[in-house]
Amino acid sequence: MTYAPDETPSPELVRAWGVCDFPLATDRVPWWAAQWLADGMDGVALRTLAGLDGTDSRDVRDLLPDVLVETDARVLDLPAAIDIVYTDLARRHLTGRLSAPRTITAVEALAVGALAADADSAEWDFYTDPPLGQIYGMGDEWGWAWGRSREELENALRTACIEQIHASSARGSAIGAIPSQDDAGTA
After folding, report:
1. Between vectors from CA 182 to CA 177 and to CA 187, what angle results, nearest 5°?
2. Gap between the Cα atoms of 52 and 33, Å rounded
3. Residues of the chain falling short of pLDDT 50
4. Is this prediction's pTM over 0.70?
5. Residue among 11, 74, 17, 1 at smallest CA distance from 40
6. Which of 25, 118, 133, 163 could connect to 4 by a Cys-Cys bridge, CB 3.0–4.6 Å?
7. Which of 118, 36, 107 is nearest to 70 (CA)?
């Protein structure tokens, strides 16, 4: 699954996606770079990236590491990156900007990507131990209508999202605040 949010992600979230080998919507990255410029960030690579049309994914990928340095996106280890990605997914789900099926698919894409990369058991635990990572496997129940009811699955996902945000807040993540109902958008 390619994750291309309708709003502009932070450079730190984009770096976290890279650390997790999460598929990147390279056609959207120049737009994000332009938004980062408008937000007051600057740099030669950032300006160059903002000027691209996004059709050449190689150009985007070649510039992105320099852009992330210029925007001061902190370097992350795998557990921190997973925490940032899962917390973002949880926030987006709880505010109605990411549907339950898309949230489940994104979590499972991260875990399956780790399996495909032959992650060792410690790395696998980084993906499945966090509260949101514990929904791994829910996609089968959701898609094939076996096991728990849809309502039970939605409640389990909502609970996992809330627990993910609480756990992230306890660790001091910058994106760990639980969104209010006023933050709710459209699904």
Report:
1. 90
2. 10
3. 1, 174, 176-187
4. yes
5. 11
6. 25
7. 36
Using CA atoms, how far apart are residues 25 and 1, in angstroms rounded to an integer? Answer: 10
Alpha-carbon distance 78 to 127, whole Å? Answer: 9
Would you report the helix, strand and coil content of the chain in percent, each value rounded to 5?
A: 65, 0, 35
Q: Would you state the pLDDT for residue 39?
A: 96
The answer to whether 162 and 94 are in contact (CB under 8 A) is yes
What residues pair up with 24 in beta bridges, in sequence order?
Answer: 3
- Of residues 66, 28, 61, the one with CA closest to residue 47: 66
Sequence-distant (≥ 6) Cβ neighbours of residue 89 within 8 angstroms: 98, 103, 106, 107, 132, 161, 164
**pLDDT tens digit sequence for 24-40:** 889 999 999 999 999 99
Answer whether 153's CB lies under 8 Å from 135's CB: no
Q: What is the largest CA-CA distance in the chain?
A: 53
**pLDDT of the residue at 35:** 95
DSSP of 85-149, one letter per residue? HHHHHHHHHHTTSS-HHHHHHHHHHHHHHHHHTT--HHHHHHHHSSTGGGGTTHHHHHHHT-SS-
**pLDDT at position 146:** 84
pLDDT score recorded for residue 183: 47
